[in-house]
Automatic annotation (TrEMBL):
Domain Cation efflux protein transmembrane: 22-212
Membrane topology: Multi-pass membrane protein
InterPro entries: Cation_efflux, Cation_efflux_CTD, Cation_efflux_CTD_sf, Cation_efflux_TM, Cation_efflux_TMD_sf, CDF/SLC30A
Residues in Cation efflux protein cytoplasmic domain copies: 216-294
Keywords annotated in UniProt: Ion transport, Membrane, Transmembrane, Transmembrane helix, Transport
TM spans (from-to): 21-42, 54-76, 88-111, 123-142, 163-181, 187-204
Superkingdom, natural source: Bacteria
This protein's record includes keyword Transport: yes
Compartment(s) where it occurs, according to its Swiss-Prot or TrEMBL record: Membrane
Keyword rRNA-binding appears in the UniProt entry: no
Protein's UniProt name: Cobalt-zinc-cadmium efflux system protein
């Protein structure tokens, strides 16, 4: 028999922090405009690269906001988990956008190494400092929310990369002002491209884990098994599955073998309450499904998983 503890597919982790994302989006778009104008008038590739990176961040935050709205739509008979997985697809798009941007920046930087153009450092420095201040403000907005959602984490990592990129542009501007070494701008562009790739890979890896229904980070199946076996009346547990629908929505299912005498109406109800309380308190998993099996029936079960 099965028991579904939670039938609610409420607001997702990204949805809970929608206002933060909107604030970051506004800040980012404002700085993008300033940096693009500054790059055009200064001739700085690194400033243009930083603006391009921030524009990709703005696109990523927009995708995350749209995904949060889509994910909030109710479940149906055709989509029993609703559209919550849309957030994961948005995070995938974010990662791919970051990779494309980094490749384009790197390619253009390599092309400029042979003949770096003259850069007007005063405009370059002003736009870069403004970008750094804005990125710092965005980081503070997202700091407490980035542990709860892949999309918020993606936005946080992108803004962090933007901050490092702005610092690289500031350093390049100062070097050019003091020494006249114009190639510093191109070097800063390459550094920005190289900073983007590891973050994109980290986000992509987390998204793939969710899509492949890997166990959530920090969750040990063996430890869960031990907790379930410690419940009075349980003799064995098998076919344990734990995965993530989207950020903040872990799901658990298992076949639990119990003593034959437990499977009366009251005994089964009490056992299910204990199992659900155990999973919820120790592993922060609210959506649990248990199939209770009498010990005498265990020989008929074909185990699909440990």
């Amino acid at each position: 028999m099965g028991h579904d503890h939670s039938h609610s597919h409420g607001i997702t982790a990204t949805g809970r922090h929608r206002k933060r994302l909107v604030a970051v989006l506004g800040i980012t778009l404002g700085v993008v405009v300033i940096q693009i104008v500054g790059a055009v008038f200064s001739g700085s590739l690194s400033l243009l690269a930083d603006a391009g990176h921030m524009l990709s961040d703005a696109a990523g935050v927009t995708i995350a906001l749209l995904a949060a709205w889509i994910a909030g739509r109710p479940a149906s008979d055709q989509r029993t988990y609703g559209y919550q997985r849309a957030e994961v697809l948005a995070a995938l798009a974010n990662a791919l956008i970051l990779i494309v941007i980094s490749v384009v920046i790197f390619t253009e930087a390599i092309r400029r190494f042979g003949a770096p153009p003259e850069v007007h450092t005063d405009i370059m420095l002003f736009a870069a400092v403004l970008g750094a201040v804005a990125n710092l403000a965005s980081l503070l907005i997202l700091r407490t929310a980035q542990d709860e959602s892949l999309n918020v984490r993606g936005a946080y990592l992108e803004v962090l990369g933007d901050l490092l990129g702005s610092v690289a542009v500031i350093i390049a501007a100062v070097v050019i002002m003091l020494t006249g070494f114009q190639t510093a701008d191109t070097i800063a562009s390459v550094l920005i491209a190289l900073m983007i790739l590891p973050r994109a890979w980290s986000l992509l890896r987390d998204v793939v884990d969710v899509l492949l229904e890997a166990s959530p980070k920090g969750v040990e199946v063996q430890m869960i098994r031990e907790h379930i076996l410690s419940v009075a009346g349980v003799t064995d547990v098998h076919d344990i599955h734990i995965w993530t629908i989207t950020s903040g929505v872990p799901v658990f299912s298992a076949h639990v073998v119990v003593e034959d005498g437990v499977l009366n109406a009251r005994g089964a109800d009490q056992l299910l309450d204990k199992l659900i309380t155990c999973l919820g308190s120790h592993f922060d998993t609210d959506h649990c499904t248990f199939q209770l099996e009498p010990a005498s029936h265990s020989d008929h079960e074909a185990h699909q998983h440990a």
